[in-house]
Please model this.
Amino acid sequence: MTVPASLRRKTIALVGLMGVGKSSIGRRLAHALDMTFIDADSEIEKAADCSISEIFERLGEPAFREGERRVISRLIDDAAPHVLATGGGAFMNEETRALLKARTVTVWLKADIEVLARRVARKDTRPLLTGRDPMEVLTAQAAERYPSYAEADLHIETGDTAHHVAVEAILSALTAHLEAPAP
Model:
């Protein structure tokens, strides 16, 4: 697929529940667009000089979310247009959501809860899952977060397909969105 230059003019922010593939799909999307990929969680860990699990343990989720908002703001302000993978809860913060909606093209990646639960069960690095059933956590998060995620510019159902299929769907949706005439 030939990628229009218009797709490289604005940061593309991926939002969605944990396990949906924001980082892995984001890397492939950035490669397809010849853009830089930035993972907000990795940048938060660099800024804090500790893991996200340690931040949650030491300071709690509210402090983590505030730091997340500051890091995302910096990334949008200081970096050339790029593909940004956000943490699953980033879009829940009203200030972060407003910033992302105003300054990026937001893409909600969505998959069935069963698929996500299977994926996240493979890692023990997710602080919101510590000692908890992934299906229960993800079901509760979906109920809470989907109304906010629905505010994203684009909605992409990733399903349980290969990442390149999701990347192609995103590229098609971005092309249609960015090349559509202004209302």
The chain has a mean pLDDT of 89.
